[in-house]
Give the backbone structure.
Amino acid sequence: KRAVDDEAGAGRFLLTGSVRADLDAQTWPGTGRLVRVQMYGLTVGEIFGRSTGEPFLDRLARADIEAFVAPPETPDLLGYVELALRGGYPDTALDLSGSGGSPIARRAWLEGYLEQLLTRDVELLGARRDPRLLRRYFEALALGTAGIAQDKTLYDAAGIDRKTAIAYEGLLANLFVLETLPAWSSNRLARLAKTGKRFIVDASLVASALRLDEAGVLRDGDLLGRVLETFVLSQIRPEVELSRSRPRLHHLRTSDGAHEVDLIAELPGGGVLAVEVKAASAPGPADARHLQWLRERLGDRFIAGALLHTGPRPFRLDERIFALPISVLWE
């Protein structure tokens, strides 16, 4: 503190610490002296050194299909699921264990990480919870990742009451394995749902909690969509810290469920980018109906929309709406 006060200049210190230290009321807040940067798992671009250097949402804000190029070897559906289940934790993503990237070794590491998280790390936060019930609640959240489940549905599935569920949810958020994407609101749209959408921060933890491999995910169409959306958000979310516009991320759903957009990025000045995620490899205009609906309601405020798919090439679907391979996120 004295050094920072005595000599101005950015980037002189990098401060890291445990979750417990960050939550400790005695920790020096550093107000006016520190810039907080939220750290997430590694993105595919970081893992393979394929990042363009320009965040996806900044490229989308150009509203130009030429801003996107698919890599020469873009994954198929199975390839995307494999990337999602590999996850962004360095020990599994970069094979720091020296196991040769064995799926068995990766699953063992993730199971051990999750076990440590739900037992010992919880105790380090000073929280005394039943590990068995906490795991069951985490499994319920994993099954519903990227969804808007009613609170009662989740805590009934875990066999706990509402008060316990609220405590568990706060605990998992403090452990940085659960995030809630807030609902978007606009004075141009009526009857929008106000419930946030819960996400497990890394799809590899979803698979580990539910004891699923790639084949298990592909067999369940609903879970496949949730895993892909969780994976896509894990690629986009870290880039927000580097974006020129620093958009705020939301989701959109009408109260009657007739229209839903997976990701809304609100730009300074009120401009909106919209993103949908589909497991389809050859999407058509009908797959973009929610994006079209939003564009018609917002008019010029709608900057551009992207339908991220599992096919090989980018193409224009409609005015200011593009079909883009998920792989453009890191190319």
Summary: The radius of gyration is 20 Å.
